[in-house]
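Team,

Forwarding the record for the chain on the shared tracking sheet. I've put the sequence and predicted structure together so nobody has to dig through attachments.
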Amino acid sequence: MPLAIDARLVPVMKLNSTAETQSSFAFLDWLLSIGMALTWGSSFLLIKIAIRDFDSALIPLGRTAFGAAALLLIPGARQRITREHWPRLLVLGFVWMAFPFFLYPLAEETVSSAITGMMNGGLPVVVTLVTAIWVQVMPSPRRIVAVLVGFSGIALIAIPSISDGSTADTRGIALLLIALFSYAVAINIARPLQSAYSPATLMLHVELVACVISLPLGIWGAKHSTFSWPALSALALLGVLGTGFAFVLFALLSKRTGAVRSMIPTYFTPIVGTVLGKLFNNEPIMWISVIGMLIVIIGAWLTSLPEKQKATDRVPAR
């Protein structure tokens, strides 16, 4: 199997998984988180604008094409990927981008952007579950509580949009859940490559692979789309910022802090989405949303705290 992990590496992966939660969140880590929250939080609005005239099948191709074009401008991103890593890279191109990038616009055809943001904010919960199964190490009770606190705040943010009549259906929610699990699996598959390549190099090649995978469906979608400058501008911003540079920031944060804590920016994406909805769509912001935002910030802070190292996790002296 091309994605099989050498059994000798499992103890090392477990030690790394433990070690990467020992250090505090640095100032740079918070800057990376804010940048990602701003770009990803605006992505729901940009998707809504794009699918007004573009077919959902065109969105993955446009996102990855614009994103890859932006990353090609970074000289260091054009480093070659060794042949032994290409099987893993091909899988990443599908589960990290091509597949979920198609699911999100499909879901937003029937689900409001606020509910989409809420669902996306639940990614840390899914990543915690998938990562625990992947590395066979359960997160600490405090880490689980912190993630659930953040998710409860996200749910409170979504309540006003639900009570005000924002639409959602079973199909759309199911598509978003599948997309979240796809992201969580991809994050764990990417870990070995993140230690071998720079974030820009890895994300450029993942986006190029995803672009090729999305090409047949994208051509079909283009034939069923109507050209408009607002839709093209939204798709370009979505690709350059949300798919290109934001994923580089995410890869860097994941490499610095680990899979679970790299999800902290997703706590803030619903907040950004709520503010943008107020500014551009005049969506009301109720007091319960403000409470939800405060709970989200508390959950993010708790998640960013380093875990205490257990005696059994320490590497014995040699």
